[in-house]
């Protein structure tokens, strides 16, 4: 999709998102922490799968970091005994990518939180009945609008036709 993403809307509807029963204890704790720190009104029941992705990536990232810390950045290869990169580093990097992508969609990053719009601040788009249909008509209305500095809808006649 090209262009900027639409701003997510914050609703006033509280949603009871419970972690799936198959999650580990640590994953359930991460889930609850994410729910309690998420922007109020942002998450919906539909977001459970995306939140699950974030939680699992976060858990795997942490586990790989813990194992990597015990082994060090370089380990000896099992066959030749040469120094090689810790095999947990690619796992750490991949899970960090997943966390960032899912976290951005869930409003967990500073940038995504700054883009949130409250539902009561959103105005419904104006539906106009007499919108110009042809390109020539649209160009004429655009020219008049640019000169007047107003919206073209304000230029529509409000009284009886003359």
Derived structural class: mainly alpha
Query: Could you say which overall geometry the principal axes of the C-alpha atoms support?
Result: elongated
Could you tell me the number of beta strands?
Answer: 4
Distance between the termini: 46 Å
Overall number of domains: 2
Estimate what percentage of residues fall within beta strands. Answer: 5-15%
Neighbour order of strands in the largest sheet: 1-4
Instruction: Give the helix proportion (percent range).
Output: 40-55%
| Main beta sheet | 2 strands, parallel
From the alpha-carbon coordinates, what is the Rg to the nearest angstrom? Answer: 26 Å
Low-confidence stretches: 124-129
Can you summarize this structure?
The protein has 162 residues and is mainly alpha-helical. It is 46% helix and 6% strand. It has two domains: 9-121, no CATH class; 126-162, no CATH class.
Describe the structure.
- With 162 residues, the protein is mainly alpha-helical.
- It is built from 5 helices and 4 strands.
- It has helices at 25-37, 48-71, 89-106, 110-114, 135-148; strands spanning 9-10, 74-76, 83-85, 117-118.
- The radius of gyration is 26 Å and the shape is elongated.
- Mean pLDDT is 77; it is low at 124-129.
List the helices and strands and how they pair.
Layout: E1 9-10, H1 25-37, H2 48-71, E2 74-76, E3 83-85, H3 89-106, H4 110-114, E4 117-118, H5 135-148
Parallel strand pairs: 1-4
Antiparallel strand pairs: 2-3
């Amino acid at each position: 999709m090209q262009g900027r993403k639409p701003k997510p809307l914050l609703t006033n509807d509280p949603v009871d998102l419970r972690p799936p029963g198959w999650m580990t204890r640590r994953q359930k704790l991460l889930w609850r922490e994410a729910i309690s720190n998420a922007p109020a009104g942002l998450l919906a029941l539909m977001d459970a799968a995306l939140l699950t992705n974030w939680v699992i990536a976060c858990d795997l990232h942490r586990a790989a970091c813990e194992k990597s810390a015990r082994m060090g950045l370089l380990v000896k290869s099992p066959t030749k005994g040469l120094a090689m990169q810790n095999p947990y580093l690619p796992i750490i990097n991949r899970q960090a990518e997943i966390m960032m992508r899912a976290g951005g969609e869930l409003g967990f990053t500073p940038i995504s939180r700054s883009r949130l719009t409250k539902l009561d601040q959103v105005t419904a788009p104006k539906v106009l009945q007499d919108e110009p249909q042809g390109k020539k008509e649209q160009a004429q209305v655009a020219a008049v609008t640019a000169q007047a500095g107003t919206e073209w809808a304000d230029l529509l006649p409000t009284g009886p036709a003359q």
